[in-house]
Specification:
single chain; 5 helices; alpha+beta; 175 residues; 7 strands; Yope Regulator, Chain: A; seven-stranded antiparallel β-sheet
Amino acid sequence: MVNRNLVRSIAVCFVLFVATTSVAHAMTRDETRDALHDTLTAAGTLSDVGATFRQSTKNPYNFVASIDDRLTYSDSLEVVISITKSNTIGFRIYPHSKGGYINIRKASDPTGLMTKLLWFSDQNFLFWGADDGGDVFTGYTITLESGYPKEAITIVVRSIRNTDKFVGQLQPYLK
């Protein structure tokens, strides 16, 4: 005679085993860095990106690039992509205009500039903000909870150049 409780227990254990072994492997920070390197190397060669991403010498979990060609309103776009300890990839794009960073404290109309940045955050794919030094950036954050999102990273990278047209709209607030 078969013990039904034993059969149920074995069935539950089997289901749990299958469920836990089929869950995606959570990548380590180093594995994510290696995958991101490969993704950025490929995406950087796309005609609408045109950037060479390199690993930062200051932080091994950051990649940096400078885009300074085919821009209308920006002198350059400084790109910093970080793999965080909290399992995310953060993009920060600092537009340079008139020889330096766009800084809230140096703006001719800081309130107007911040209002415009808030409106941009509502209207755009990338959000806008300022760092603790007042330097303006546009950014995006991707979570890695569901695995490594190669296609999403490529889409964000392809959107970086769009920052330039919005810098043109910031000019009335700058000195």
